[in-house]
Amino acid sequence: MERQWRKQRERKAFLALADGTVFHGYGFGCPVDGTGEAVFNTGMTGYQEILSDPSYAGQFVALTTAEVGNYGCCEADMESRGVFLNALVIQELNRASNYRAEEELEDFLIRHGKPGIAGVDTRALTLHLREHGAQKAFLHVSDEELSEEAAVERARAWEGLDGKDYASIVSTTASYRWNDSGKHRVVVYDFGVKYNILRNLAESGAQVTVVPSRTPALEVLAMEPDGVFLSNGPADPSAVKYAIDNIRVLLGQVPLMGICLGHQLLGLACGAKCGRLKFGHHGCNHPVKNVLTGEVAISSQNHNYALSDLPEELELTHINLNDNSCEGLRHKTLPAFSVQFHPEAAPGPRDAQKLFDQFIQMMEK
Amino acid sequence: MPKRTDIQKILLIGSGPIVIGQGCEFDYSGVQACKALKSDGFEVILVNSNPATVMTDPELADRTYIEPLTCDILHEIIRRERPDAILPTLGGQTALNLAMELEDKKILRRYDVELIGADADAIRRAEDRQLFKETMLKIGLDLPRSGSAHSPGEAEAIARTIGSWPLIVRPGFTLGGTGGGIAHDPEEFSVIVRRGLDASLNHEVLIEESLLGWKEFEMEVMRDKKGSSVIVCSIENLDPMGVHTGDSITIAPIQTLTDREYQAMRDDSLRVLAAIGVETGGSNVQWAVDPATGRRIIIEMNPRVSRSSALASKATGFPIAKIAAKLAVGYTLDELRNDITGTTPSCFEPALDYVVTKVPRFTFEKFPAADPTLGTQMKSVGEVMAIGRNLKESLQKALRSLETGRAGFGADGKDAKYESASDEELAEKLAVPNAERIFYLRAALKRGWDVEKLYELTRIDRYFLRHLEELAAFEEEIRAAGSLEKLDPGLFRQIKTLGFSDRQIAFLLNTTEEAVSAARGEIGLAPVYGAVDTCAGEFEAITPYYYSCYAEHGEPVRPRGGKKSIMVLGGGPNRIGQGIEFDYCCCHAAFALRKAGYEVVMVNSNPETVSTDYDTSDKLYFEPLTLEDIMNIYVREACSGVIVQFGGQTPLNLAQALKAAGACVIGTSPDDIDLAEDRDYFKQLASRIGILQPENGIAHRPEEAVSVARKIGYPVLVRPSFVLGGRGMVIVHREEHLEKFAEEAARVAEGKPILIDRFLEHAVELDVDCISDGETTVIGAILEHVEPAGCHSGDSASITPPRSLSDTVLERIREYAQAFASALHVSGLMNMQLAVKGEDIYMIEVNPRASRTIPFVSKAIGVSLAELAALCMTGKKLADLGFTREVTLPYTAVKEAVFPFVKFPGVDITLTPEMKSTGEVMSIDRDPNLAYLKSQIAAGGGLPKSGNVFLSVRDQDKDEIVPLARKMTELGFTIYATLGTSTKLYGEGIKTRALFRISRGRPNLLDLIHDHAVQWIVNTSESGAEAMTDEVRMRSSAIAAGIPVTTTVAGTAAALEGIRDQLEFGRFEVCSLQEYHRHLSHGKG
Predict the structure, then answer these.
(1) Hey, is the C-beta of A280 within 8 angstroms of any chain B C-beta?
(2) Taking CB atoms and an 8 Å cutoff, what residues of chain A touch B344?
(3) Whole-structure pTM value
(4) Could you say which residues from 489 to 528 on chain B have a Cβ atom under 8 Å away from some Cβ of chain A?
(5) Which domains does chain A have, with CATH numbers?
(6) I need a labelling partner for B761 at 20 to 30 A (CA). Which of A176, A353, B226, B856 fits?
(7) Looking at this predicted complex, what is its ipTM?
(8) Does residue A270 have an active-site annotation?
(9) If we measure between CA atoms, which residue out of A121, A49, A57 comes closest to residue A90?
(10) How far apart are the two ends of chain A, measured CA to CA in Å?
(11) Residue range A161-184, pLDDT digits in tens
């Protein structure tokens, strides 16, 4: 067994935040330096789903759970065609012990050309981010000589994610059919869609076609869909103006369902406001209450933005019980609804999966 | 949807005495439930027979019945109180079983009492194996191939159908898997099936396909009446299937499942609750997973708060019992606040950014004849929990919390036993689970056995084995540094992040713990403290609940607004001799000091306790009770004092070291505590005070013991100094036995001397609990033991007020108490053990600390001695506290011990000076005999009112038994006796039926037991000597068959008086503690 104790205690790799705070650790995965936005996730399982979730594009994702890599990685757990986040930040790296494992986490990162940093006090990092918000950061894991000050400078110099249309970057470039049969034809706008959304839609009886994020609404309508789905995706909803315009066209023409970024875009299209949350939601344990039925579900969440000031024609359907922020809405007269959280889970609890059935029912009306 | 308004009065059933499988975790849950219900304005009626609990404190419930937990007694309480509802899900299996009995006997219907939390149907579906199976199949879950049987014949048929060995046998309706086992062949099968059928309340056993070696998981689920459900904690067992989960090392959160597997298990766990019909509250669902295929099988579910719930609460900060109580009265999860964050609701799943390890604590050293291998029957008596930032640190902290002398995962100079095992022995110890397997694993790794080989032998997941492998290998990395001086700071930090204690480092680098600690200090290498915040840092936590780790940043010290801070050290894991009684004292110290305006910092490692509840103290540190871990906290919190006298032997043993390290030990000084153990000093002190002492001497080596004993004269009492619970203590009647026992005592003493006393035969033994403020000393109570001297005080039944002492004797005892307290400068509690023979009073020992009887005495006299003692330690005077006079009781209170013998088949149940009981019960009555009888019923040995009694007594008891036998016949009992006893009684004109001795022929007692033809066994034997195999067999099969066995003449006499009085009164009366206390003039003078 190869032991890396020396490397682990020398702690030469580091993550430098734009505010000057530096967190040390040791590098693993692909030894490439780079910039990204530092965020955290408190889920205790599902690192591979996080790695392959396009919503994390451009980010350094710190996992607060103590031991990572324990069950390796496998093709079946991919949430997209690749890895879009910029680096994984963890405390302890382990080798795999699970019959499903096809690959070690470290080899998976190398294959996808992504760096990781382990041995980081991710609790300290999380408390820091909680207090100061998500931050621009620079990760140093290569052999290059680099001072902490220089790294902080590079973090500050980076343009960041705000105002950037990452959805276009992670979106598929060409339309594709996810499955061939289904009672209802659903077109999915890919702003960074997770495969489990597609799996859930297919399971609910939809024939799913995925289209690039910039596909014009008329083109979508020309496909004669029974419903259009607005996917999750990375970064700033205000940077995806074209999508908002498309949604305005689609609204009322065809049933709509949105998740996460898709939810924010639907809200914006109807005139709601969207702003940054003080803390953001990043975990698998958030209680969401359906204010219409009183039902509470534990949900998977990953967002820094949230809708507020819903216009008259929108009805608030879900709230986050931790901070009462908006977690779901529906149009009062038109067939459209959306949720901020992730009913498709992966990772996280699957309490709210029946929302996909609700979408199908909407198409049946 | 707020609380229900259609119920006002709720009866809460406790779990009774501490037994294996049901520990003090139910005190913790009961306390939370009482507080939660009271704060909502409900009238709370509590019944529990265990006086050592915090829940039975009179302040907690509106009325507290310390009465036997039997259906008849509960019937009386219901008749008297007319509660609207019973909450049966917080008192363990005992409460659940009682609720079912009340339901089955239609008592609930008759008095219109509702079961809340879980109704009878749900309980039945979860507990009845067949119903459970059907329910699980209905929701599509996978089950082991199995069947349930009500007779040996049915069982064999099922075994044939399953068609593979081994088979697992589990009785229905029991605690901690009593009577179950793994059968590897038809012969074993038949034995275990019979035992299981007998142990089962509904005479049923489940037989199933073996899942040995599969991975084992648990999920702790909370559900509210709207169906909202959360997983509070997920747990993975390090020991795979085959070892009872209570005996397994367990880790939270689950480590080796992918999100997909985890979520599927989560979904199914929630469906299990819904299908069973758990309306509200906490349940635990257990799963087995085939490591090769992921096939997942449901093992069982408990529709109640369990031992795992206590662990889950402490591991996550989620107060399961409190929330379960609130949900039972109608609240929903989203309406309840998360106490830890103060802002978010309880409807969430805690996220952990640390690793929690639970390690069970065994006491096989107490039962040398017991089978030390682990199986499906739980054998551990306690547990520790540790929190670390990573698995290695967490495991090492847990191992050093065990109070077994280990400093972590080996590397402390105590591995010789394991390292010297032959390859064959080592392989055997790994393949057959046992209490020390973890240390055999280290020895195997040191021998170069690789993970694959260990996996083949143990089936412990490679994930865990790799961590162990790395720890074992890292020892060489430490050794390679050469010396402490050459240890570079980077490596030093790395060592600490892996959880190595200063003691381990000292061993590996050939230096002392003090030197390592000093070296750490020089480079500023100190632990930081993480918060158990339920949310992995996502939200701010307001509740200060901490663990140490060597991460970069920790929580700042929370300001305490000018208050002085006092540290209270808990007792660590429960074990025989040190249990819940000490936790009770620690809690009371915390309550009193907080009330008096101090900040209380609690340190403990036992997840089952009330002391580790986050609202017992101001700051809770879940940490090992070692010098290193305690001092780190002491310095960080800048405490102004530490209390060691409440936590039992664990903190007491640390007193001198704490003082030397600069801590201020408040209360009786460590020097005076040591003086009380100093034989020579004590001898002088006794003669100065003018009290007799049994002749005694000290031996520093086993050989010396013989000459000392010759000088003193036999019989002698031999014991090591500085132990609690009479570890290694025996009475020796003949020289040929002495050497062997002296060696055992020397081994237990670990270098400290062996004490030898003349043993006083036929003396009455007393426990005297006192309190002193340094000037005034007041006796809390004088307890008279029912069993004569020679049986450990913790194992003897005790009665207060004493029955057989003259006023002069009592007066002299009071004088001695004053004299000893003042000579030892006692500030706090003091316990004297005396023996009285005629009018002579002998001093056996004096301990200036909390004794095991403090909670019992406090409940009896209606005064919390522990609270007063804590205040005395801060300088308060008893006069200011209003306690200057002994309390006179207008009733009798009895304490009886409860034993684990049923868990250790074949072990002798004779009482000796070595303590064997795990728990205790209390009973109160105005009639002393009824009080005693109630205590026997409460302890589980419900005595018959009629039927057959078997008598067999040693020669020296033959005269005394005659009047008792006569009384038995008068009361209508039929007497069976062995030849000797029978002849004696016949000569006295008492009719008996003679039986053979077991080894001499039949019919003998075993036949009677087997035919259920005997209702009570009275059997006395020479204490301390090697008991006859006959008697051991007889007593242990009686215990297994649930037949009461009385092993002393005194106990028999007391029991007979009680039976007579009960026959006269017709039924038992019940009365609450609060009502009893109303009749006391509270000692204020």
Answers:
(1) no
(2) 321-322
(3) 0.92
(4) 490-491, 493-494
(5) 2-157 (3.50.30.20), 167-364 (3.40.50.880)
(6) B856
(7) 0.97
(8) no
(9) A121
(10) 61
(11) 988 999 999 999 999 999 999 999
